[in-house]
Design brief:
Length: about 375
């Protein structure tokens, strides 16, 4: 497989795509598939039209990403992964336009079960009624194969609209997916994946007594978790919710024996705290913390682990949380530099609004916050 990544920061959509097309044509006569990470700064209604006009192919998918990766660069514009198979590799697409439909969970699980020997990259959006993190964990309950080590991805990123809602879409088959997801399925591919957390739990352990969906109400002896959270930020002038991204809650799944899940703060109200992922009654949690150096050391550790598993790779994907980017501050570029240098490969991916991947023992599919999920792959 020959795989390269290109990018453009041209101001207009057509100019950016034409710029990328010129770059691609210098390296490829033909190619099998294109994956576009497109800034929501560009008008979304024009994306399918201009991709078709410039590239004259239906063999592509696109999705919104405020920041994407082109090797070791972080791009505010468009990044494109170009894939050309040289042996028996293949790519297929599966998508659903409405995850809130009654059969969506079963249909998605059946697709994974029918293609358990293939690699799946799933890109979801935030333009849906049903929470995508909840949807993924419901799908996991109906996956009937193990190890579940072949499904990863993330939620595409966008800006808030006039109503304060974040909308992020996918683009495939001349359609705009506003309430669903796209799965890119690879056949005859060798791959290795791993998940970097880096945050360490500290302090008091709380048991969740009342929670629903993404909202946490009460812990321990019916203590209001909002009161606990607001005590942490007391006296801070001009408070920004992103300050709490430095201390995500750390879900302790000890009873299940699975890797802990981080949850990023989204909103602090009088009676509840809302996160960027599902919260369940009976779970235990701690606050957590990590320095930029600790996060990057975790990236380095998993990059070396992936390298040991796969050896040479032909392209690497990174699905890394936007909140993790914020915590890395001016060192955010170093994550991509670590992956490209250790794995000695081109890098594609984006900063997500939630990551999708397996638990530590590859028994379940989980929804993560503030992690970096890395995939290295090569054609078999």
């Amino acid at each position: 497989m020959k795989a390269l990544v290109f990018q453009s920061r041209e101001k207009t959509l057509s100019s950016a795509l034409e710029d990328i097309k010129k770059q691609i044509d210098k390296h490829f006569d033909t190619y099998d598939f294109l994956i576009f990470a497109v800034s929501p700064d560009y008008p979304y209604n024009d994306i399918n039209y201009y991709i078709k006009k410039v590239f004259n192919t239906e063999k592509n998918i696109g999705f919104h990403a405020i920041h994407s990766f082109c090797d070791s660069e972080i791009v505010e514009g468009i990044s494109v992964a170009v894939i050309k198979f040289e042996r028996t590799g293949k790519v297929e697409i599966f998508y659903l336009e409405g995850i809130d439909e009654n059969e969506a969970v079963i249909e998605t699980a059946n697709y994974f079960n029918s293609n358990s020997d293939k690699l799946h990259i799933i890109i979801g959006g935030l333009g849906n009624k049903k929470r995508f993190g909840t949807f993924i964990e419901e799908v996991s309950q109906f996956i009937d194969f193990q190890p579940v080590n072949n499904i990863i991805g993330g939620i595409s990123s966008g800006y808030r609209d006039a109503n304060g809602e974040v909308l992020s879409y996918q683009f495939v088959d001349s359609k705009i997916i506003k309430n669903g997801f796209v799965i890119i399925t690879f056949s005859n591919i060798d791959f290795a994946i791993d998940i970097a957390l880096g945050f360490k739990p500290y302090g008091v352990t709380y048991e969740i007594k009342k929670a629903k969906d993404y909202k946490l109400y009460l812990v321990d002896e019916n203590r209001n978790f909002s009161d606990i959270t607001r005590s942490l930020i007391k006296g801070i002038d001009n408070f920004d919710i992103r300050y709490l991204w430095y201390i995500p809650i750390y879900i302790l799944d000890d009873e299940e024996g699975y890797v802990a899940t981080l949850r990023t703060f989204k909103k602090v109200e009088k009676d509840y705290v809302e996160f960027f992922g599902p919260i369940k009654e009976g779970q235990k949690l701690k606050l957590s913390f990590a320095t930029a150096e600790e996060l990057l050391q975790e990236n380095l550790k998993i990059a070396k682990r992936v390298k040991e598993r796969i050896g040479h790779s032909e392209i690497v994907f990174d699905f890394s949380c936007t909140a993790r980017q914020y915590v890395l501050e001016e060192r955010q570029k170093e994550e991509a530099e670590i992956y490209t240098s250790i794995l000695n490969s081109n890098l594609f991916g984006f900063f997500t609004y939630g990551e999708i991947g397996p638990d530590r023992y590859f028994k379940k599919l989980k929804f993560y916050n503030e992690t970096s999920i890395v995939l290295a792959m090569k054609e078999r």
